Amino acid sequence: MSRLFWVLVFLLFGAAAHAQEQPLVVRLGAPALHGDTQGVWGATGVARAKGWFEEEFAKDGITFEFPGFKGGGPMVGQALANGQIDFAANGDMISIIGKSSGIKTRLLMPGSRLENAYLLVAPGSPIKSVSDLRGKKVAYLKGNYIQLQVIRILATQGMSEKDIRNVSLLGAAATNALLNGNIDAIFVGAESLESRDKGLTRVIYSTLGGSARLTAQSGILVREEFAQRYPDITRRVVKVLVKAAHWASDPANKDEVFAIWAKGGRSLATLETDYSNRPIADRLSPLLDPFYVAQYQDTQKLVGELGLLRGVEFDIQQWFDPQPLEAALKELSLEHYWVALDANGQRTR
After folding, report:
1. Superfamily (CATH H level) for 23-114+216-331
2. In CATH, which of 3.90.180.10, 3.40.190.10, 3.30.710.10, 3.40.50.720 is domain 117-206?
3. pLDDT of 87-117, one tens digit each?
4. In Å, what is the CA distance from 39 to each residue of 74, 113, 218, 239, 306?
5. pLDDT in tens, 310-321
């Protein structure tokens, strides 16, 4: 056979091999909030709305899917474990439990930061403060990020979960129970403030303006196998998210950012309230700074005390993989754009 024939064979097999070196579809999953299965929250939602994933990967022929899981964080963790998704946006508590149980992941960057908690009561309730919750029936989901916030908030009043009676309810079911007098209060995140917007409940306490250590954090995870096999794709996914976080951190874009996020079920009034106490750049910062590290370390400690770790404790900082983030910040010339927060959530400059 001619030399030309073998050259053509080599090129064809080489092209086929190259095609197999990258996936056709990349899947980034997250908990579905208010029926949102389109992933419109955070930097991920901004990147989707602006078409930046498609723009970055168009020449590669890679498409993206953003499944939302109605079962929340645990279902996202299970999807990671089963290889059903490649990346995930998930809360610190569930992510740490998953890691301790043997799910091989790397944490690449924050998914959300400084998420607030709110204490709701009925309009005519005599409850005025957190300390008034002793002996009362309080609705929130255990095994969820909000439980850690409840633990931290109660501790500021010298209380623990033993001082209240937990009822595992959320959303409309919790609101109905409150209005019917079956429970006394509800702890929720900003995504569940619709009852306040409708005048059915009132907020008597929130973490707005309080200690950053009482807020909740989430992270962007990648399956370790995927990161090892496709390091360049992993880096570029992080780059898209950093680009989105940068655009959304600009106060001039706030109205458009809120309009994007409102498609996920949060009202504009809720967003205005929830983002009123800090620069939006602090909430969207992708930095793995001392505050973020300290919060994950404290979460692991609390999860251990709750008996929810399914294996031994692990080194949080060894779990974090900062290299894709550092590469993205450098490529986008954003190394000094965001201000790092110290372990207590205070700006370092």
Report:
1. Periplasmic binding protein-like II (3.40.190.10)
2. 3.40.190.10
3. 999 999 999 999 999 999 999 999 999 999 9
4. 17, 17, 14, 18, 30
5. 888 899 999 999
